[in-house]
Amino acid sequence: MGLAPYARAALILSAACATFSSSAEARRGVAESCPLVISEIMVNPSGTETAREFIELFNVGTNSVNLGEYVVGDTNETDAIVAVSSGLILKPGRFALILDPGYFSANEPYHDIPAEALVVTIGDAAFGRGGLINSRANTVVLRSSGGCEQRVSYLPEAVFPALSLEKIDVRGPDTPDNWAVSLVPDGTPGRPNSRRRNACDVSIRNASASPDTLHPPEQLTVRFDLLNAGTDTTGPFPVILFADQDGDSVPSAVEDTLIRWNVRSLQPAETFTGVETMPVSRPFVGPLVLAAMLAGDENSKDNTQALRCVVGLPARSILINEIMAYPSEGEGQWVEILNAGADPLSLAGCLLKTATGSGAVDYGPLLYPGDYLVVAESPEGVRTRYGMGTLVCGVAGGFPYLSRSASSSRRVSFVDATDVSIDQAHYPVPEQGRSLERADSASDGSILESWSPSWASAKATPGLRNNASYPLPRGFECVADPVPATDTVGIRIVTPEHGASVSLTVFDMAGREIRTLLTRERIPAESYVRWDGMDGSGRQVPTGVYILHIEVVSPEEGKYFRRSQPVVIVRRR
Questions:
Q1: d(CA 114, CA 203)
Q2: Would you say 226 and 266 are in contact if contact means Cβ atoms under 8 Å apart?
Q3: DSSP letter string over 24-89?
Q4: Helix, coil or strand: residue 9
Q5: Number of C-beta neighbours around residue 217 at 10 A
Q6: How many whole angstroms separate alpha carbon 44 and alpha carbon 162?
Q7: Domains observed in the chain
Q8: Given its phi and psi angles, is residue 23 left (phi above 0), alpha (psi -120 to 50 degrees) or beta?
Q9: Cα separations in angstroms, 3 against 53, 162, 180, 204, 518
Q10: Which residue, 36, 49, 334, 451, shows the most beta carbons closer than 10 Å to its own?
Q11: What contacts 342, CB < 8 A, 6 or more positions away?
Q12: Three-class SS state of 384
């Protein structure tokens, strides 16, 4: 049985708990603050029961107390408190631990009894008449020769093996709601109770985020209660809502603070209620956590609370960019995705889905804008095949099979944590060992015409810019002359429309950029570009095969066309 049932049962104490200065005042119901209080009772200990029962006292007064003036027991019998080795004088703010006389010969010690606790015993063989009763209702009695008396009554439903009864606020009343079952086995003999009220202690409660599932842009409302559970008045302090990027529930300088509440001083038992609505324009980079930033809080475990809030990805923020549905032997299937948005994205809870099943994208870090991620059946197979340094991850639960036959459903979707499809692809029948690339990030990936076989020398471009495009329109030409070239290459470009936006870049066979000749320049229907055989740093490139990569954006339709073609440089010796 866990501790939660014990905690509930701990409230089953008799309402007869009270502290009186004399029997006459007890009859009148007048309570006086006596310096000694019963702070803990072990009724049903582990081990030898009669040897390990104890009653703990606490001096709440301002002066030392002579325990020799007190007796302790139950309503049937009380016994004198006698010294063990450190006398009978209990200083203010200290605990006295009254142990059964059999404890000292049983060899079943309680561990971690503090040295400053005053250990004493009783002048009889057992507490009361035969030990503390746990089979029926009983009352523990503490009485001084001066007439100060305290009684704590308990019912058998409040007694659990090896768990003591603890007073929550030792300076508070002896009412049932101020007692509880200990949170730790064997209790807390001679030291502060596990159920004690701290002097400095605030607690976040009833925190919620509404709605608990959303897609940017949308509004999010956060609510919470903050209780001063301590005995002291707090000073001013903030409560913040932050995105817990590193998962440690502690805000740091690199984590986004989303909302800040400035809390004024709180009296004991006073509650502050925080409510705020905020716009959500992008996904958070970690789970949402509320944190009360009260310095010196003695119980920081309840100072933070995670909110259940699943934020989906913006539409088309992740694009399926390349698909290897029919890989070479040992490579494994894979799908390349691209962060096409403007913000870093967490892929927690995202899935790849096909007609045969789904699998969770197993990637923990953020995916930054413009970055590619290859989600692979065999991450090591991809690295071995392409020798690449791009981001690669696996799939938890198994990679969903990518169909490749003409008669099958060749579709794959990228789904966010809210089970919304962010992008989907319907791809043509693949050729073995050659990927299918998206022609343009602006194209609709759910139609076959958006996909073309890779033109790259490796037959795929995982982690690199795609080589595929829309089929070039009629009338387009890109001709290099002479072939092969010795020093300078003349490139004639003919487009069917005047004013097309053209980019022209030279790459080596490894896909490294050598030189940019045009960058989104509007050119006439026919133009001529010269490459002097130099790289971007002005160095002469060696003899070899290079790739001319031309990108054209149609001025009327806005469609994106690409072509890559070889050009050979042969240097004279």
A1: 28
A2: yes
A3: HHHHHT-B---SEEEEEEESS-SSSHHHH-EEEEEE-SSS-EEGGGEEEEESS-EEEEEESSS-SE
A4: helix
A5: 10
A6: 6
A7: 3-181 (2.60.40.1260), 202-311 (2.60.40.10), 318-453 (2.60.40.1260), 477-569 (2.60.40.4070)
A8: alpha
A9: 21, 12, 11, 21, 71
A10: 334
A11: 282, 369
A12: helix
Give pLDDT tens digits for 542-557. Answer: 999 888 888 887 776 5
Mean pLDDT of the chain: 88
Instruction: Give the C-alpha separation, 383 to 381, whole Å.
Output: 6
Look at residue 280 and give its three-state secondary structure: strand
Place of tokens 């609370």: 305
CA distances from 211 to 216, 257, 260, 431, 559 (A): 12, 19, 20, 46, 39
Integer-rounded Cα radius of gyration of the chain: 38
The pLDDT confidence band at residue 244, using thresholds 50, 70 and 90, is very high
Sequential DSSP letters for 399-465: PPP---STTS--EEEEE-TTS-EEEEEE-PPPPTT--EEES-TTS-TTSGGGEEE--STTS--TTS-
Two tokens, residue 453: 């076989």
How far is 546 from 511, CA to CA, in rounded Å? 9
Give DSSP secondary structure letters for 100-139.
-TTHHHH--PPTT--TTSEEEEESSSSSTTTS---SS-EE
Classified as helix, coil or strand, 273 is: strand
Span 429-456, pLDDT tens digits: 999 999 999 977 778 899 988 888 887 7
Q: What predicted TM-score, i.e. pTM, was given to this entire model?
A: 0.56
Residue 537: which residues within 8 A CB-CB, separation 6 or more?
Answer: none
- B/e letters for 508-540, b = 16+ CB within 10 Å, e = fewer, are eeebeebbebbeeeebeeeeebebebeeeeeee
